[in-house]
Amino acid sequence: MTAVDAVKSAYRNYASFEGRAARSDFWWFVPFQIVVAALISQIDGTSQMITGPGMMRYTYSPGLLGAIWHLVNLLPILALGARRLHDLGKSGWWLLLGLIPMIGVLFLLAWASLRGTAGPNAYGPDPLAV
C-alpha cells in the first residue's frame, strides 16, 4: 500500500473502530500526521528552537490551526489505532494504555510494529489477504 492510499484509507474509515488495519496503514498515517503538524506549527508560528549555553531544544505548542488539526484528527488516529490492535487480536480498549506516561506509549508502539494475525481473527479478515 502506498502512503497516499494509507492516508486515504484512514480518512475513509474516519470513525470506524471495527475491522483490522495493516502495519503499513498505521505507519504511513503516523508520519503524515507528524509532518502536517510540524508544518502547521511553522505556519502558526508556535514552534521555536531555543538555544543557550550548552542547550538546544525544540518546543511545540499548538496554536489555533494546530489545535483544530489535532481535534479533527483525534478520531481517525484513535480508530486506526484500534483497528491496528484488532489486527493483532487485541481489543481496541488497549489504547487506554497510552494514558500511562512513556511506558504505555512504548507498549503501543511496539505492538503497532508487530505483524498481525495471519488469516481471519475475531475482528475480521486479514487486511493483507484482501
Automatic annotation (TrEMBL):
InterPro entries given in the database record: DUF805
PANTHER family: INNER MEMBRANE PROTEIN YHAH-RELATED, INNER MEMBRANE PROTEIN-RELATED-RELATED
Organism of provenance: Gemmobacter nanjingensis
Record flagged with keyword Membrane: yes
Keywords: Membrane, Transmembrane, Transmembrane helix
The protein's name: DUF805 domain-containing protein
Domain of life, per lineage: Bacteria
Residue ranges crossing the lipid bilayer per the database entry: 26-43, 63-81, 93-114
Pfam families for the chain: DUF805 (PF05656)
